[in-house]
Specification:
GO terms for molecular function: ATP binding. By secondary structure, the protein is an alpha+beta fold. The strands form seven sheets. Strands 14, 15, 16, 17, 18, 19 and 20 form a seven-stranded antiparallel sheet that branches. A hairpin with a 5-residue loop joins strand 18 and strand 19. It is elongated and about 165 Å long.
Length: 758
């Protein structure tokens, strides 16, 4: 609960600081932020409108493609149906009407544009009565060849417009309409197509050309439609002459299409798009200018119509007998510019304005901070002037050309000048430095400090010659004065009269000499005691190793004697090793005695591998007790080294014991690694462990005397080892292994190297 309260408090404090920062912005900065917000809002809104318009254009392309594809597909279906009926009629089968009816019934649902289709035979006047009788029996109601007198339009519902057809050489009566006209009394049946004022030109053109399309018809349902005529000839190869072809015509396949079904629009398309089928500019005469038009129902607002253009795409129909083009038009609008989008644009446009406000507030705050810093600098400068005026040391500030810019009252007093007399004058005009008992020409300290760009102390024998002839022995320094850009601006000379200081120093020196003599006597007494302690510690350290080995062998012998059947050979080997270590202790004492009396060491050629083997034999019992695994990598062709055998063996034994102590924390998985190798002219022995290693900050101190990482250590073992190895002309180093643990490396020169002097 306390943490939650502290977090809320921190948030409140941060919010308060942020509000304080925003308040520091100037009115001009706030106005700039408002302008930026307006520009960003306009940019985001324009981007949104651009994306909207681009999406509408893409949608327009897709819709136009869908409408055109659907229109062409229905035309192709109608053409295929027309050709299928022509094929059925061409077979001259008595069941052709039934076959046509079955075909149309199977395709009626798939072709909603089909108003009706059928074969209309060409009837001569001599065959007229027989034909009317046959059709009446077939249809079950009176059938007569008739004419229709069109008045204002080509509608079929005006009863007074029908009359019997007069005598003509040939008739083309409407006798088949599948799947049936949209009327109850079939009053269109019997219409002489060759005499109809609307369809006769198209029928005549089809007889002479083979196929033709009528102008726009007003169908019985009130819809608009087109009539397709395909001529059926009584010869397989009709004449290319139109008049002859007309005489060779046996009948017509007539198909009437409903235009509103031919151009199929979804509800969304009908709302957003205006669709028109109109004659192409290069179409032959005789075709209607406009055969279909569907206006856009959902018109955008006046603002969109005023600002945005209308898109229009024109595509020609791929039909040789339909010279029309499809025109899909749409008035662009602001479809996506909803209140939520306006709100989001307004919110997102606040981000750069808010960032600009923060930047301007930070700049204003920085200006305030700079003004405050300048004020503090002015105060500090005043404080510095007061401090310079109050100190007893002389201070002189110089330009790069050694003109005096400032000097404090202490400098005026020491130079014997009045206030303001030295400013803007050259330094050599008011200050003359000389040197007592100078054996050579002294370099001017001011020039020296400027050239070297470092502080230069005045010489100890430097004195100041005043205008009144007085000499003042002074001390001080000259420091270069750099500018903010790193360039040198001048220098600062500080000095003081040393006469009072020397008097105080003489008195203090006499008193300190007395104390120093007493302290030296005490230090000499303590040094003697420390020397005796170091010698005793060194002797104890050296003797402790063979004594420890003797104890280990004796304990092993006692353990063997306790067995019912003791191993006498192993017992003898333990006793022999004890005797050897006792003899070794005596040799160590002899070596220490020789070291004390400065006797020369006994250097002999030594095999380093033999020294390693002797040390491992001495540690055999301790290695088994601590369960230490030994990893040896011995080079058997090593040259000999020149050293004292006892001391070298003692160094190796001491390093191995240190490794055993370091691996107490990892028992029983301790690994003692021993490796010998030849590295140029150096014979190398490395002794490593897998213990905790040496702290990095202690690596440089482990060979220092009396420094130990063990709680009971004296800190002399590694120091003695390093001293002994260096006496043999070699080196002893230590490092931490990358895999963990420490490693000590002994490097000794080969035997052919000149032996070191003892």
């Amino acid at each position: 609960m306390a943490d939650k309260h502290s977090i809320i408090t921190s948030l409140h404090a941060a919010l308060a600081r942020h509000l304080d920062l925003l308040r520091t912005a100037t009115p001009r900065g706030r106005l700039a932020c408002a302008v930026l917000w307006l520009l960003t809002f306009a940019l985001l809104l324009g981007q949104s409108v651009a994306l909207d318009l681009n999406q509408q254009r893409q949608e327009h392309q897709q819709v136009q493609g869908l409408i055109l594809s659907g229109l062409q597909t229905r035309l192709q279906e109608s053409e295929m149906l027309q050709q299928s009926v022509v094929d059925i009629v061409g077979q001259e089968n008595s069941q052709r009407e039934q076959r046509i009816r079955l075909l149309v019934e199977s395709l009626a649902r798939e072709q909603p544009q089909l108003y009706f289709i059928g074969y209309q035979p060409l009837v001569s006047h001599a065959y007229r009565r027989e034909f009317e009788r046959m059709r009446s029996q077939l249809q079950g109601q009176p059938y007569r060849i008739r004419d229709y007198q069109h008045q204002q339009d080509n509608g079929w519902s005006q009863q007074q417009g029908w009359r019997l057809a007069p005598k003509r050489p040939r008739y083309l009566p409407l006798s088949m309409a599948e799947p049936g006209l949209a009327s109850d009394d079939w009053r269109e049946m019997g219409l002489d197509l060759l005499a109809d004022s609307v369809l006769a030109p198209t029928a005549a053109r089809a007889m002479g050309q083979g196929e033709a399309v009528s102008p726009v018809l007003r169908l019985n349902s009130g819809q608009q439609g087109l009539a397709f005529f395909s001529a059926i000839y009584n010869t397989e190869a009709p004449s290319p002459v139109p008049l002859v072809r007309s005489e060779q015509t046996a009948g017509m396949v007539l198909q009437v299409l409903a235009l509103d079904k031919l151009v199929s629009l979804t509800p969304s398309m009908s709302l957003r798009y205006s669709v028109t089928l109109q004659r192409k500019d290069n179409a032959p005469s005789g075709y209607d200018r406009l055969i279909y038009r569907h206006p856009q129902q959902d018109q955008p607002g006046w603002l969109a119509q005023w600002l945005l253009p209308a898109m229009e795409i024109r595509k020609n129909l791929d039909s040789p007998y339909l010279p029309y083009e499809l025109v899909v038009r749409r008035q662009l609008g602001f479809d996506r510019t909803a209140p939520l989008e306006l709100l989001l644009s307004a919110v997102f446009s606040m981000l750069p304005a808010y960032l600009l406000l923060i930047i301007l507030a930070l700049l204003a705050q920085n200006r305030q901070v700079q003004e405050q810093a300048q004020e503090r600098l002015h105060r500090e400068r005043e404080y510095a002037m007061v401090a310079l005026s109050g100190i007893s040391d002389a201070v002189i500030s110089l330009d790069i050309d050694l003109s005096i810019r400032y000097l404090n009252p202490a400098a005026e007093t020491l130079l014997g000048l009045k206030a303001g007399d030295a400013v803007q004058r050259k330094l050599h005009q008011v200050l003359r430095l000389n040197y007592e008992f100078a054996r050579q020409v002294e370099e001017d300290p001011v020039h020296k400090a400027i050239q070297r760009r470092e502080t230069v102390l005045l010489a100890q024998n430097c004195y100041l010659s005043r205008n009144d002839g007085a000499k003042l022995l002074i001390e001080g320094s000259v420091s270069p004065l750099p500018g903010r850009d790193g360039r040198l601006m001048g220098a600062v000379l500080t000095f003081r009269d040393t006469a009072p200081i020397r008097r105080r120093m003489l008195a203090a020196l006499e008193a300190s000499e007395t104390r120093l003599r007493q302290h030296e006597m005490e230090l000499a007494r303590v040094a003697r005691i420390n020397t005796m302690g170091e010698m005793a510690s060194g002797i104890a350290h050296e003797i402790n190793q063979p004594l420890s080995a003797i104890m280990s062998y004796c304990q092993a012998g006692l353990s063997l004697l306790e067995d019912e059947d003791p191993d006498m050979a192993m017992l003898r080997r333990a006793l022999d090793s004890s005797v050897t270590q006792a003899s070794r202790a005596g040799q160590i004492i002899q070596r220490l005695r020789e070291f004390v009396i400065k006797k020369t060491q006994q250097f002999t050629p030594i095999n380093l591998n033999q020294v390693v083997g002797n040390a491992l034999n001495l540690l055999e019992y301790e290695l088994k007790t601590h369960d230490i695994h030994i990893e040896q990598n011995i080079c058997h062709d090593l040259p000999l080294v020149y050293a004292d055998n006892i001391q070298l063996e003692q160094v190796v034994l001491n390093l191995m014991r240190n490794a055993l102590d370091a691996m107490e924390t990892v028992a029983p998985w301790g690994r003692l690694s021993i490796a010998t190798s030849l590295n140029g002219r150096w014979i190398r022995l490395s002794i490593g462990d897998n213990g905790a290693g040496i702290a990095p900050e202690l690596l440089d101190r482990i060979f220092s005397p009396f420094f130990s990482t063990k709680a009971s250590g004296m800190g002399l073992g590694l120091a003695i080892c390093q001293t002994a190895i260096e006496a043999f002309g070699g080196k002893l180093n230590a490092r931490n292994k990358p895999t963990g643990g420490a490693e000590f490396i002994i490097e000794l020169p080969q035997l052919d190297a000149p032996p070191p002097t003892g």
